[in-house]
Amino acid sequence: MKERKIKPMKDDSNKILREHLVELLKGGGAHAKFEDAVKDLSPELRGRRPSGFPHSPWMLLEHLRITQSDILEFSRNPKHVSPEWPEGYWPKDEKPPRTATWGESVKKFHADLNEMQKLVSNPETDLYAQISWGDGQTILREALLLADHNAYHVAQLVDVRRLLGVWPK
Questions:
Q1: What is the pLDDT of residues 102-122, one digit of tens each?
Q2: Which residue, among 12, 5, 149, 156, has the nearest Cα to 77 in the 3D structure?
Q3: DSSP structure string for 37-50
């Protein structure tokens, strides 16, 4: 995978903006944290879809992981091909295929989030330049999109846990 060449900004007066973006990507503040939404959920509940709710915890976790990976790769890789919308962004099954898959997905989510935070915090990343292979997107826009998307679906994970009777712990 060839990574995007990042042009340094002449004067990085955006240190505070970068710090705020990293904090927003981490979650928390006015939103539930990803770590709290996924930790200590028993394997038998990970694939359970509450009555009247469209997704199981597994479906939401995988959707978060897949979408975040797509946004990250689009932001740094001109050869990246996004999944088909919408089916490529959601797992086909309500349950993880193996018990270990839950932890693997959480680990990949954290790794990609860390990579996006590195990209945003790097003073050589021009947050405002249009991504040349995109349609006017910028790294700033992609970081905000990712933070917004994650906050929305982490809140859904909290809702699923409430409906399953396991929130708060």
A1: 999 999 999 999 999 999 999
A2: 5
A3: HHTT--HHHHTPPP
Considering only 13-17, 86-90, 127-131, 138-142, which range has the smallest mean pLDDT?
13-17
Axis-axis angle for helices 15-26, 99-121 (nearest 10): 170
Q: Give the Cα separation of 159 and 49 in Å (integer).
A: 11
Buried b or exposed e, range 14-34, using 16+ CB within 10 angstroms: beeebeebbebbbbeeebbeb
> Where do the domains of the chain lie, and which CATH numbers do they carry?
15-163 (1.20.120)
**Which of 4-8, 83-87, 126-130 is least confident?**
4-8
So what's the pLDDT on residue 30? Answer: 87
Would you give the distance in Å from CA 127 to the centre of its chain?
18
C-alpha distance across the termini of the chain, in Å: 41
Inter-helix orientation angle 139-163/15-26, to 10°? 20
3-state SS, one letter per residue, for 3-28: CCCCCCCCCCCCHHHHHHHHHHHHCC
User: Sign (positive/negative) of CA torsion 46, 164, 107, 137?
Assistant: positive
